[in-house]
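Give me structure tokens for this 189-residue protein.
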Amino acid sequence: MYAIVEIGGSQWKVEQKKVIRVPSMEAENGKKVTFSEVLLVVDNKNVEIGTPYVKDAVVEATVLGQGRDKKVLVFKKKRRKNYKVLKGHRQGFTELKIDSISVGGKKSSQAAPEQKAAKPASEKAEAKKAPAAKTVAKPAAKKSAAKTGAAKPAAGKTGSGKTAKPAAKKTAAKPAAKAPAKDADKKKE
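Here you go.
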């Protein structure tokens, strides 16, 4: 059995004995909390949908504790305007354990279904006997220069296919004063 409940402006799927984290509420640890804003209740094959809420449906929970989530960083920037703002935010939460889901005064009798069913012993033994097939990755075949149409490797590449960093360019210092002086002599003539 599960239900969809509205808590703190959000909708939550709850099951019996399930622990959920909702936005922080004003409630002390260990206190019982009831939620009457139940939108949907599913019990085996019986589905009750509310308009907007299911009548006489109540979800009871126990407050386990209060806390704060991990920090979320909010960064704003406007390019070329020298505007950068970095802010952090930690959202508060309340941890709830769902005790029961009831519709019309009738509480849910089923416990929450288990997540994984246990495998039979015969399947476990078969799994141990049959080893898993190992896959070995084959190296990629290199294309020859004749097949690709290139006569020689491109500039800046080595034979291994990896790009090499270009060598630092050395520029000779050009005398800036001589060039204008020659131009000045030509203009005078």
